[in-house]
Design brief:
With 363 residues, chain A is mainly alpha-helical. Chain A has helices spanning 3-7, 11-32, 40-61, 64-69, 71-88, 108-125, 133-152, 156-172, 177-197, 200-210, 219-232, 244-247, 259-292, 296-320, 338-356, and strands at residues 90-92, 95-101, 104-106. Chain A is built from 15 helices and 3 strands. The longest helix of chain A has 34 residues, at 259-292. The two termini of chain A are 25 Å apart. Chain B has 598 residues and is of the alpha+beta class. In chain B, helix 13 packs across helix 16 (391-400). The chains are: A mainly alpha (363), B alpha+beta (598). At the A-B interface, helix 8, helix 11, helix 12, helix 13 and helix 14 of A face helix 1, helix 2 and strand 9 of B.
């Protein structure tokens, strides 16, 4: 690393990331302290964070242009991983998302998100400009295969994240607005077909999102209880380890997808705002890096990462306060889950990478 | 190279993100600040109770489908620690209602501190009038609830207790490696017997009931119900009729109604064709029902401190000197080694002299042949043979016949026993091998110890023509689809361990012992019985009484071993018990010995 790269190293982004992980670990402890081993999740978190930081360093140091050159390999790897998980994956709660790896298991769909950002960026970068079907068709086909494999698992949340990433990157790559508009319209038309493909539990989640009273004891239950948890935190919260909703296990998956309810309940509006501010800082740095990248590949990769984290944040927090339907996507850096944390740190590394190698600012 | 980033489009992306996050902030403001008070009230009123619906364990049947162990409904009183806001008021009241001490209840609650939302069971199997009184006083007992739970019911009380074992609350150690299998504190688990061996089969999957309740704990509505799945049933190889006969036979000895009075003993009956245990009894026994409802410390102490150790399965888990039953091994060794045949003659003057040692006998027999030697259990005959065969060979035949070796029966806690030999005695017993040891060992004395079930397996190998079979208690178990799955083919541990000549002489001698020798007390009209008695000298009291026999002599279908600790003489104490079991297996009415039963 040259001195220039060190000067351009984005310490704010790194510190925001570490702050989110550290704060998240405290929340995670609070959410899991009544489990048989109250420290198990925090210990796992420390391990995952350690591995994740190693991955972050790797992703930051190796020039993203070099990484981009392997895009075909990465794409094939993504598709193979997703195909393998369909065949031999471990099933949890009706979805086949986990790939056993000795004593561990990991979620290829988490890896797929970051790989898709890198491969799509390189692919789009290969075209001078994206202005017609000749460019759109290959790019869409490129994204469609992993997305369909994830839909098939089924993992609606992750596939939605990937669609959001694709759309944002296409937009940043300069795709004509009319083309994007028609794609959106086609997507809307495909909705009924998609509805048919959904599992029963997913349909129920969508129905209760529109009308929580429709099924207050079943799918609507989590929604009502998580709103009560967040709301009851009021301005300053009930205090760490004092959340009653948390303690009583009223909320399912409170250490993974619903971890925001613990923040809302125990730290109140102030805590939620602090967390959103940290994410805001993170997103601001990501957006700045996208805007200052020295080349189109950098901009596109950074935009993809930006879209990914922003979408995760908005959908995850939104669902706990009844603004979004319940989909199983984690809160970045905070929810329990090793694959997700490691890949979020990989994405952060990619951003740092692009930021360090940005062009000189000429004023 | 001049690259111009798509600044305008990035601004659009930023604007969208800022807008979305702003909406989140507004929404959070709305529900946390504007409506926060309301949600706080809701969270405080949120009284939801999670109940575990305890799944009944599987039923245990005998081989003919008669239930031996079932589950019956009962009431348990429990405390919800989170709702027990005034323990100082509630617990003394509860203690008075239950006839327990305040400390007992407090200790149980404290032990469950790590799971404040789970009910802590205070007392199981409450009588209905106590349930009624608790319900009447519900307002004065906030945090106290009544759960309906199945309780294990052992239909025959003390009989067969050692086969079935008992259930008890899972211990911390047992819990440590079972959490992921769904065990939690307060769950019942098989602690002994087949309850423990077949825990995985018998245990059901608990259900779950989530209810919304009012401030007084009265259920308002059911939010979620996951029904319990009861455990799978099993059928044992036990035949209730034979079990009863064995229990009765031992009971008579215990209660002084037999020729000999003693305090403890065991019976094992086994099908020599397949290793199926038809009866297994050990006395003194205990009533597993007291464990099912939570044994009190006092009862537990009574059972564990009892000098006679009623919890011990004397059929499998304790070792005893085999005495003259071991002569079967000596005879086999001598026959196989070609040292003796059926018409060999011996002079038995009533003692056997080896150097400066003299080994005694009951009396002087004069000149006898080998069959008479077995028939009358003449020590001198076996001293002579044992001395000639030698300790090493005796021990090796004993082991081949399954003595001093685990039988692998499907019960926990089986004991091994000891078969010393010149090369191993020092290591096993801590004493050197003396030249006289082979002589002593030939009549099953010295450091030789075995379990009654090993003797049964050995007799079965003679009865079935030379196959050492693994004894077993499981006939079939129901699988996940509730279809019976047989326990599989008999497990052959060794086969053809005797040659045909040896077998013929052993069968003749064992038949003679019952027909006109030491085992006459087991003779029956309806079926020919063969067998060997034993009276094992031991340092703790009167000799142990053994009888190991099989019937019908011509085509054995059952082996019965009876053992009476300090029962004095096998022929007096144990042979009548075997006879009683055989009478149950071959009722006098069906005089034909060839009719197939069981």
């Amino acid at each position: 690393m040259s001195r220039r790269m060190l000067r351009y190293f984005d310490w704010v982004l790194l510190l925001a990331t570490l702050a989110l992980i550290a704060g998240g670990a405290i929340i995670l402890f609070s959410a899991t302290r009544t489990f048989p081993d109250p420290w198990a999740f925090v210990k796992a978190r420390a391990l995952h964070a350690g591995v994740g930081i190693a991955v972050l360093i790797f992703m930051a140091v190796v020039d993203y242009q070099t990484l981009g050159r392997f895009w075909r390999t990465l794409l094939v790897a993504t598709i193979i991983l997703l195909a393998v998980v369909d065949v031999v994956g471990r099933t949890a709660q009706g979805a086949q998302r986990w790939l056993p790896l000795g004593p561990l298991s990991f979620q290829p769909s988490e890896v797929a998100k970051v790989f898709l950002i890198m491969t799509l960026a390189k692919h789009m970068d290969g075209f001078k400009e994206i202005n017609g079907l000749r460019q759109l068709v290959p790019v869409l086909a490129h994204a469609a295969l992993p997305i369909l494999l994830i839909v098939q698992q089924p993992d609606m949340g992750t596939s939605m994240v990937m669609v959001a990433i694709l759309a944002t990157m296409l937009f940043a790559a300069g795709a004509p607005l009319r083309a994007m508009g028609s794609l959106g319209a086609m997507g809307a038309l495909a909705m009924p077909v998609l509805w048919q493909m959904l599992h029963d539990y997913q349909r129920r989640r969508l129905i209760v999102f529109i009308d929580p009273g429709a099924d207050p004891l079943g799918a609507g239950y989590a929604l009502i209880q998580s709103k009560i948890a967040v709301g009851s935190g009021q301005l300053f919260g009930k205090g760490l380890l004092h959340g009653t909703q948390n303690l009583l296990h009223f909320i399912p998956e409170q250490h993974t997808d619903f971890i925001f309810t613990v923040i809302g309940e125990e730290f109140g509006f102030a805590g939620a705002i602090l967390m959103l501010a940290l994410f805001g800082l993170w997103l601001w740095r990501a957006s700045t890096i996208a805007g200052q990248a020295k080349d189109r590949l950098g901009t596109l990769m950074a935009t993809g990462v930006l879209a990914m984290i922003a979408f995760h944040l908005v959908v995850n927090v939104g669902m706990t306060i009844g603004m979004m339907p319940i989909t199983g996507i984690p809160l970045p850096f905070i929810s329990h889950g090793g694959s997700a944390l490691i890949m979020m740190l990989a994405a952060t590394g990619l951003l740092l990478n692009i930021g360090m190698r940005r062009k000189k600012i000429l004023f | 190279m001049d690259y111009l980033p798509p600044t305008r489009r990035l601004r659009v992306v930023n604007a969208i993100i800022i807008a979305l996050i702003s909406v989140l902030v507004l929404r959070l403001w709305q529900i946390q600040v504007l409506q926060g008070r309301d949600f706080l009230r809701q969270s405080e009123e949120n009284r939801i109770r999670d109940y575990t619906i305890t799944a009944p364990r599987g039923i245990i049947y005998d081989r003919k489908g008669r239930p031996l162990v079932t589950s019956r409904p009962s009431f348990t009183v429990a405390v919800l620690p989170l709702e027990l806001t005034t323990p100082g008021m509630v617990l003394p009241r509860l203690a008075a209602l239950l006839g327990m001490t305040f400390q007992d209840i407090k200790a149980r609650i404290d032990a469950n501190r790590s799971r404040p939302f789970e009910p802590v069971r205070i007392k199981r199997d409450l009588p209905t009038h106590v349930v009624a009184r608790i319900e009447e006083n519900r307002l004065d007992l906030p945090g106290v609830i009544i759960l309906a739970e199945p309780v294990r019911h052992y239909l025959h009380g003390q009989m067969g207790a050692h086969i079935f074992g008992y259930v008890g609350e899972v211990s911390e150690a047992e819990l440590a490696d079972r959490r992921e299998r769904g065990y939690k504190l307060g769950d019942l688990i098989g602690k002994a017997g087949v309850e423990r061996t077949y825990e995985e089969v018998l245990r059901g999957v608990d259900g779950h009931l989530r209810m919304e309740v009012d401030a007084l704990g009265r259920p308002l509505r059911v939010l979620q119900r996951v029904p319990a799945v009861s455990g799978r049933s099993i059928a044992l190889t036990i035949d209730l009729d034979l079990q009863r006969a064995a229990f009765e036979g031992l009971r008579l000895v215990l209660e002084g109604e037999a020729l000999v009075t003693a305090q403890s003993g065991a019976v094992v009956a086994m099908d020599p064709r397949n290793g199926e245990i038809l009866a297994m009894e050990s006395v003194p026994s205990y009533d597993p029902n007291v464990f099912a409802i939570g044994i009190s410390a006092k009862q537990w102490e009574g059972l564990t401190k009892d000098r006679l150790k009623p919890m011990l399965n004397r059929s499998t888990a304790t070792v005893f000197e085999p005495g003259s039953v071991f002569k079967v091994v000596t005879a086999t060794a001598a026959l196989e080694e070609g040292i003796v045949n059926r018409s060999s003659t011996f002079y038995a003057p009533g003692y056997f002299r080896l150097g400066r040692w003299v080994f005694g006998d009951l009396r002087a027999w004069g000149t006898v042949n080998f069959i008479q030697g077995i028939q009358n259990s003449i020590n001198v005959v076996f001293y002579t043979l044992g001395h000639r065969v030698g300790g090493e060979a005796l021990a090796s035949y004993a082991r081949k016949m399954g003595l001093g070796e685990l039988t692998g029966v499907d019960l926990p806690g089986e004991a091994v026993g000891t078969i010393p030999s010149p090369s191993t005695k020092q290591a096993l017993v801590g004493e050197p091998w003396y030249p006289g040891d082979a002589v002593n060992m030939s009549i099953g004395q010295g450091a030789v110890t075995v379990t009654p079930i090993q003797i049964a397996r050995m007799m079965a190998s003679i009865a079935n023509g030379g196959t050492v079979l693994q004894p077993r208690l499981l006939l079939f178990a129901y699988d996940k689809d509730r279809k019976p799955q047989p326990a599989g083919v008999p497990v052959v541990q060794r086969r053809d361990i005797y040659n045909a000549k040896t077998l013929a002489v052993l069968h003749e001698g064992l038949r003679a012992a019952v027909e006109r020798g030491t085992g006459r007390a087991s003779n029956l009209k309806q079926v020919h019985v063969s067998g060997k008695t034993g009276s094992a000298e031991n340092p703790r009291g009167k000799p142990h009484a053994w009888f190991a026999g099989f019937a019908p002599s011509e085509a054995p279908r059952i082996v019965v071993v009876a053992f009476v600790e300090h029962g004095f003489r096998g022929g007096l104490a144990s042979a009548p018990i075997v006879r009683r079991v055989l009478e149950a297996a071959f009722p006098a009415r069906e005089a034909s010995a060839t009719e197939v039963k069981p």
